Fold this protein.
Amino acid sequence: DGGITQSPKYLFRKEGQNVTLSCEQNLNHDAMYWYRQDPGQGLRLIYYSQIVNDFQKGDIAEGYSVSREKKESFPLTVTSAQKNPTAFYLCASSILKGGLWQPQHFGDGTRLSIL
Amino acid sequence: AQTVTQSQPEMSVQEAETVTLSCTYDTSESDYYLFWYKQPPSRQMILVIRQEAYKQQNATENRFSVNFQKAAKSFSLKISDSQLGDAAMYFCAYREETSGSRLTFGEGTQLTVNP
């Protein structure tokens, strides 16, 4: 079945450590996105990429980095500069059809916690 | 920047009854899309319904319908014949067509369905 796979499901980070969250899609979607969700809050956009080797900052990009070397993969690195990384992270993807972006599909998320 | 506001942090409904969730947004654009996403306890984001701003007719998907008031910048979701499986966090989201595919989410409304 086609879909979006996020791994790991749970991730723990020590202070001062960088960690990378994986997001892979086999939907042949053009665009991929990373969102952060804090308890009781909506999703906030971290980074997004609409084509390979190109990406744009979202609303809360500080302390995060991404790459888009392959169409199906969009890993997110949470760097030590992100002072409050504990959150639920969601990856999404979308396809461009007939000049219109289709609704985003989401992965199951990764919960990141600080040790 | 566009903003999306959901003024009801929590709502409850009796099984088989109807409930309406509110959403307002702020934009100066005329071409955009609006969405309602559902997030059950599993944390997966599921598209419920979408509305194109240029369409005057309100979108409907089975028991789910919207009341789109473009001049008032209001986009409410009506759930008819509520079922226990409708219990979830509901997010309203906005997408501006001139700025690509990125979504802006509201804070969410937690819906409880009472048996």
